[in-house]
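retry 2 of 3: previous attempt timed out while embedding cytidine-5'-monophosphate. Reduced batch size to 1 and resubmitted. Inputs unchanged:
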Amino acid sequence: MSSLAGRQVLVGVTGGIAAYKTPELVRRLREAGAEVRVIMSAGAEAFITPLTLQAVSGHRVRSDLLDPEAEAGMGHIELARWADDILVAPATAHVIARLAHGLADDLLATLVLASEARLWLAPAMNRVMWDAAAVRDNAARLAERGVRLLGPGSGSQACGEEGQGRMLEPAELVAALSAVGAEGPLAGRRFVVTAGPTHEPLDPVRFIGNRSSGRMGFAVVAALAEAGADVDLVAGPSTLATPPGVRRVDVRTAIEMREAVMARIAGADGFVGVAAVADYRPAEVAGDKIKKSDSALRVELVPNPDILAEVAALAERPALVVGFAAETRDIEAAARGKLEAKGLDLIAANQVGDDRGFEQADNALEIYAADRHWSLPARPKPELARELVAIIAERMPLREQHSQ
Ligand code: C5P
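retry 2 succeeded.
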């Protein structure tokens, strides 16, 4: 059964040329089992008629906030409560700005404010617009608040240009919504995951970093979401795309990563630290670019906080705390040592160096718990991540039953 079966999806259409794809989106959502209602912004009606969307959704399409007749049926508050998911597709720069600023000046913006549904945005605009600082800031602000951005993708655009800004295809949007949901062994569980490297600045243009690409962490995030978990990804610098349905916050340094993790950890069921967090950072960051000279440059490094150990030591700690260990030798001893020292439930260790581990598509993992060991031989990181997530699901303590 699709995880969209029985889901109530409110599709908000705004005024972009990609609105011509919305009827197909609605049709596919319904085929996947969702119940769909559509609302349109005034701008959307310039691109597509309400009648088309009424025909494919099977329900009257609303566009006015102050429509006494419509409010007599399912009013905007009922509609806001009805939705499990609100998907704005296409989402124009204008609606992204209005939502980022909390405006309530039309039916869609008001509904979003009045709803506790998951909010998904499928941006669609010219590539230069998508790159504009104001649009980026607004999108980042929404992502910070937990809004799920789907795309945009790249390719040829209606304006005749090539680049990033195309709305994802209806099938991709449906796949993203289906990836999150009521099914899967980790449904109803929330995970916080760190991934990628950290960059520790020396001056405005230089940093100390490492070779982590973020691939393993992003694969773990995707596998957790596939297993039904609700995932917050805290990503160090990485150009990888966010797996569907995942909330992502981008950070640069270990200190920023710790802050972002601590802001999200309360109430999480699991934490997986995959990031290759820099162990040290320069004690001082030069305000100006450090000039070349003939004498040696000495940089004092101070230790960074150990995010994983801090999470494991929290009084209200997630039920399952999982670490990674990149080792060049004596894997088992090193991994078991970290499991114990950091107070972890599971540790996934891999051999790095000699072109193994970092930046590679394949990896192999040795996973240790205090009472068990699993050996996962080399295979592509997404497959490996699925197996690790199966072990995570198996080790996840059953939820305590609260009788009230
Ligand atoms: O001690 P070591 O750095 O080898 O431990 C690796 C594990 O600890 C990884 O899961 C990594 O994400 C996490 N870690 C962390 N904060 C640090 C260093 C490592 O969360 N400062």
